[in-house]
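the two lines:
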Amino acid sequence: MIGLTHYLIVSAILFSIGLMGVLRRRNLLMLFFATEVMLNAVNVAFAAISHYYNDLTGQMFAFFVIAIAASEVAVGLGILIVLYKKHGSLDLDDLATMRG
Amino acid sequence: MTSLASGMVLISGFFFILGADFLGVVQLIVYVGAVMALYSFAMMFFDATRDIKEKNTPAPLIFLLGGLSALVLVLMFAGPIHFEAVQALYPMHEGVGNAQDVGIVLFTKYLVPFEVAAVMLLVAMIAGIILAGKKMDQSLTEDQSADDEILQQKDAK
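prediction for all of em together
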């Protein structure tokens, strides 16, 4: 029988994959993909908890997370276009202009 | 790209299994329909297959941090599960569809966040149009010399 723990572990694994993508990737577009994976992992956790506690609040939060993700994609792709016009590439190493 | 889109479809399958039908449909429409279309256009726009060369330097610190954070996440999620004193704030009703339930709660208890989310989406749309729409008359990915060559060839003819 699949319980709440299984869903949460799947969600945690998915979130870790997204986190590794955010940390490891050098292409900005791929970084956005990794963010989407993380947001979806959180949504799976919300839906699972909502199902097993018989509560609708988790699904509400998942809806708002989806709305945030959609607007993030719209603004993020606009910023990506501006960056590409400015620098000519999407490589994070090329975009690092501040040397610490 | 394809794997991300299929992953979104499979995650919506999770939602259908979990009884969140409306969330699954929204996931299919928003992610697979809108976000993936936007991303695929962006990948065509930027020619992302060209700069996909990643430096695969071994970074044990990053692996360590990723593993540690995964462990912390699993502990955080698995810790309070046996805590049985959780009361359902907005319980689901038997015999009523998921969409009706979601609609009633969304338009009564969560009306203000819903409107704020609508305004935020509008702001995001305006920001996207303004950010991407500036100087769209000049070519972005093709360099200007190629266009000049074509123009010169036309002039020569």
